[in-house]
Please model this.
Amino acid sequence: MTALQILTLCLIAAVVSCINVKGFVGGTVKIKCEYDTSYSSYAKYFCKGQNPGCQDLVRTSTQQSWVKHGRFSLNDSSMGHFTVQMTNLSLQDSGMYQCAVDIYLSNDQYTEINLVVNDKARDLKETCKESDVACILQFLNEMEQEAYETASLPLKEVSSLLDSLLEAPRESLASRGEDVLQSSEKLVSRLVEPTHTQSHRNLSTNTTEVGILSIGTNTTLATLRPLVQSDASLGIDLLGIAQNNNGAASVVFMVYKDMQEVLNASFFNTGPGHSTSAMSNVVSVVLPHILNKTLLSPVNLTIHLRRTRPKEKPSCVYWNVSAWIEDGCHVRETNPTHTVCSCDHLSTFALIMTVDHTQESDPILDVLNTILVLIGLVFLTLAVMTFALCRWNPRVSNVARLNLCVCLLLAHPLFLLTQSFLHLIWPHEVLCKLLAGVLHFLFLCCFVWMSIEATLLFLSVRKLRQVKPNERAGLHWKRSILIGYGIPLVILVVSAGVRPDGYGSEECWLKTENELNWSFLGPVCFIIVGNIILFLIIFITIYSTLKEARSDASTVKYNRVLLFKIMMQFVILGCPWILGLLASRSHVLEVLFLFLTSQQGTAIFVIHCLLNTEVRNQYRTWWKRFGPAGMQKGCCSGTSGSVNLSQQASGDTAFSTHAITLPTLSLRPVRDGTVSWGKID
Model:
């Protein structure tokens, strides 16, 4: 029967009414059939064909109000209408149907139904080419304008139509970005079906992932869990929205799998000196078929970062006609794998990462820092080997400087490697936090050992004017170990306990947002200031002692050597770290800071090893045994513990071994930093 013939039958006066119904292949239609309320107790039926003589598909009895038969169901409200539902539609279902009331001993009252079943996915392929985005959008727009109140699109149909649109060439999609997003949202919204309680549907296609949550007036949910997709989740107060919409509301949460390559970061304006990149999938949030869309509280979007790089700032943005903007959205929290965006409106959202190139480090300084640190590590290694392998005067304690060298030898390369491979480490949050904690501990150990070294040196030189043989000064080595590692460990444990989320910044260091960085800066500043004060006292004490002890012209060379050793002690005690507070203000100070702080190992080796006569003698012995001559075997051998006046005058004594010799008195080191005086003949 042709459509013209069906329309003619609908116009015949004997027909109570005629309804045109449209549906989709694989979908469902609901048909509302009205009747005179005086026939409420009569049986109702639904049949295919012309009446009389049509074939019953589903029928109630006088005692039934609801019945189901195969794909057909009939629900009589007994209030002047009944509803027929047809599921799993096919093209063969198109045709004439009858909704009728079975009236005893009289002609049945019936309503003619003209059902047209469409295969929109097939029609789209027949109408438009795959790459013709304009044609596809026009087709979807025309489909939207047609009357489909009685039918919902099936999942398969929506999936096919979405892929047909979103698999078009990226250039074509980008030029019609706003239309593409709106058509996609309207298409997915056709999946929403009313419910009295609650329902949840999911759809996964080649181009999208969709989650739909609907609640009705009889919902049993007191709270709602977030809608979760593979790369994003949505937290929204749908219950509050439903209260403003007669108790019913639905939300559609859609994740586009490749849209970030279409509507990319070039649509986000950041100004000069910045670069941008899209670091997440594009997501859309829609409230379909709702009049009052006012949000009682902001929505929270947890978005997975597709790629992460250190020193990038995430921006929560939404699509506004032709560009990404930030109005109404902000970053609530972020980590290397996820970012939570809080927004006071609904739209299409994404994460854009921005890098401020105006604050990037100088590559020349980076190379210079690497070279200087490597040089310092070489000399630190030599110093550790010297302290560990060579025989020392039993009166000399190397506990403080040996542990200082070990801590520096661990801290500097670990920090250098962390910064060099930051782009690989930062995405792994646990590893980044672990490295931050280890670096925190090691650098604190370095500064505590610097403080112990400064204290031992101060205790040694304060006796310059006193002659107290064998009087001990300083700590026992066990107590030094307890202080050197115990204090940093206590600070680390307290910091991690109070601020467990304070470790793992963009540089895999301490975060500044919660001020945890002061758990490092506070002790360091205190130690540096204390070391500077001790250094000044040591310098003044030595200067006044030398001034009283010597007055002849032969002291010029000796004073120069001693002055050089004092300045090297300034580096060893970590005093140049104070320049770090001012380095950002001056390029010269920054270079000076890098040079002095990276050469602590060099200063330790020069003062305590290279300029120490006893150590040099042991180097010569080692060279004779293991050098090219190779005539002798054995390790370093000890030398005399005393240093004569001629050696001291030439600058061979090690000032920083707590041994300082004056013309009339010889200060000899004793274990644990104690000193004794003896006359020089």
Q: What stands out?
A: The longest strand covers residues 109-118.
